[in-house]
Amino acid sequence: MQSHSLFLSDLFPRAGLIATKVKLVRYSLLQPGPSEAFSLNQLFEYSQLQKPKFFENIDYVLVFVGAKGNTAKFIGCYSTTGIELPLKEDLLPKTFPKSLLRNPNNVFHPLEETAIFKDLENRLFIDWQADEDIWYQTGQIDKPVLYIQNTGKYVYQGSQSVVLSFDELEEIVMDPILYASWHTALSTMTAIYLITDLEAGIHFIGSSYTPNSILSTWSQFVETHHGNYHIVHSHLLEHPENYRKFQFSILQVLPNIIEEDDIFEIKKLYRKKLGKNARIIEN
Fold first, then answer.
1. 250 confidence band (pLDDT: 50, 70, 90)
2. Cα dihedral sign for 249, 251, 252, 258?
3. CA 215 distance to own-chain centroid
4. Residue 209: its pLDDT value, please?
5. Of 45, 75, 164, 239, which one's alpha carbon is 20 to 30 angstroms from that of 115?
6. Measured between alpha carbons, how far is 128 from 66 in angstroms, rounded to an integer?
């Protein structure tokens, strides 16, 4: 049996947290709701949508994310307010997906961001030690600290903020431990993406959808430079070193279920917006 020297609860006294007043929440990024909120950097807002009395007698909530297995990555520590409000759209940012407001059992619990464990956000990993369908627990249950990773140069801040050079993307793809937040988000995301050759001024509009993710698609560009797409390969035959000038960004996150014809129409719309130098990558 593996022994552990450090547990999550060992950190509570220094921060002034009382274990009985702490709730731990772990969102699975394999679930569509948390995955969409996380990809838009709105997991804090999503955490405020809970059933009545969810935070009763709780002072602080520690939010984690996970995928397969029991590993959970720490996202943030938030303080409760004891307030419950009927759920209304105007309580949340305009960019918050309306699809995540449809649970009739939820109310709005205002939470407040704190500086507690700020230096451990996106770096602290624990063993959740429970079945994957158990998504919240009390802070009294010991959670082994698995590791605290170093901080990468590039911080994932949501799909709308993704703008990466080829070299930056290469570093992120090649280091899944240091850039675990990127790998977690991009491996569960399907989207319309844009590759811009900053030297030639050419735009390539592509799409990645089930069963492929943005991570798997962009990893092919890191490996082959052209992603195994004819139109990009032809461009690089004329400009062999221009892959180093490629800039990668995300135009639109796609729902889990969407028709290929609808995706193509979205790409055509972006080509119209970007002008004559825009090309569509055919899947």
1. very high
2. negative
3. 12
4. 87
5. 164
6. 9
Burial of 32 (0-12, 13-18, 19+ CB in 10 A): middle
- What does R_g of the chain's alpha carbons equal in angstroms? 21
Across the range 84-108, mean pLDDT stands at 92
Question: What is the CATH class of 159-280?
Answer: alpha beta
Domain ranges for the chain: 8-148, 159-280
pTM of the predicted protein model: 0.63
Q: Is the peptide bond before 32 cis (omega within 30 degrees of 0)?
A: no
Q: Which residue bears the tokens 């704190």? A: 114
Handedness of CA 237, 191, 208, 225 (dihedral sign): positive
What per-residue confidence (pLDDT) applies to 156?
Answer: 86
